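Here is one such protein, fold included:

. . .
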Amino acid sequence: MVKCDGREDNDALFKASSEIRHNLVYDPGTMPKITVDGQVIDAKPGQMLLQACSEAGIHLPQYCYHPGLSIVASCRICLVEIEGIPKMVPSCQTPVRDGMTIHSKSPKAVANQKQVMEYLLINHPLDCPICDQAGECYLQDYSYQYGRSESRFEEDKAKKPKKDVGENIYLYSDRCIMCTRCVRFTREISGTSELFVDGRGHKEEIDIFPGRPINNKLAGNVVDLCPVGALLDKDFLFKQRVWLLKSAPSISPVDSGGENIFLDYNEGVIHRIKPRFNAEVNQWWISDDTRYSYKAVHSDKRLTQARRLQYGSQIATSYSKAVEEAGAGLRAVAAKEGEGSLYAVLSPMMACEEAWLLGTLLRSIDPQAMLISGPVPTAKEDEIFKNPQSGKQTFVIKAEKVPNAAGIRRVMAMLGGPTATWEELSANEKPELKKIKGGWITGGYLSDWQPAKSVLPKGFKVVQDILQSSLANSADVLLPAAAWAEKDGCWENYQGRIQPFTSAIAPVEGARREGDVYYTLLGRTGLYNAEVIRREMGDAFATVELPNHRAVEPAFEFAEL
């Protein structure tokens, strides 16, 4: 063990483990075999013991280790015995060697686990009943699995204050176990370094630099990283017990990055969004824009009443009557004005399956109907995060602020026929655009998307949207739609990767899923089924499947930062 003034020096430890890895020579054609508690397992050359055990399904306790961060071996609960080495070693920082024999349940290893748990709980407050982390807390789990049945500590616990460290984050210092995951994240992933370790020994605390709160665009990830209840999200504070929450796999609706997420919900309400691991897309992280995007789903500006135009004013009507009026109105325009008189604005917030159905519907009425891709709000440039030491890119927030612009373009190309972009509609220079007299406009954006000056042609308009707007108020037929979290489908991100998502909750009362509306107007029986539509679409969509379990993260690999 490398020590500095009685305290482990993390940089020295990391350097020492790197030298060990460098000095080991492996034959790439062979897989090291190690024995763990009597079980022989295969490992990969250069893997750490903890990673090899995790891959083989052998659980070793861990606090400070995370596969996306550097290895510091500071928590010491993962120490194991290795035959031939006199002292126990941290499994997270010890590389495998062919023929190793490891004992993680020997009397010595078990005694160490109990000692570490006892030390961590000396000053930890007994506030599990009010802690948001209760139910998914490493301290709770490990206290039961590896700790002592009762505390031997009789003195008063040291009390530390709660800190407001950012716009969305509280730090409960007395719960912190100094695993430094959060500190390493701000240094190695966000590259902003707001958090640091202040003090030494029993006075050691996580803190922020004066005047530098943790408000970067990835800040919420430190709450996910915290293995205990020290870092908490203000937005989720005291709202739900985690064992009451159900999870639905979904995709971020805020940009074209396609971040994989879980929607955690209960009784028809989404309470939080958590990252879902995907090595090729977002790894373990999500942006704060994604984390709080569910708020639009429960906005008090949601449309919940179908309306139709009567004598120049909108009146409330039943949803079924509004759908009938929409279909009849479009057919009347097509019959009067001829082919090429209808259009559909396909929002990049729609699922690909919905866009396919709407395009099919319009073309069934008017074979030359114009399909128009909806507006794509775009920032000036991508936001790129890098590791300051290595310069390696760690995360990107895309400038394109909608999830499915690429998918809409793909669907339009598959349907063929006349097409246009929103910019071409705005310019009104295409001869075909001058003929359109009636159409179907879809929204679904998380905020008001209609430009100040409308570019939509005059004539019969069916508007399908989730939030109140001037466009909704001017529609001939208004159909309240379902938000992305209330329906199934798939989106295509900027990489061309088609990813499915599933509904977490039912649509708000008074709204319907777009797919159900299109099914009705197309004369199909039953309800909208995204999987069935994907098979109909064929091509790249037929093989798209939802993840069927929560544990989608592969075996740990060493994070080269």
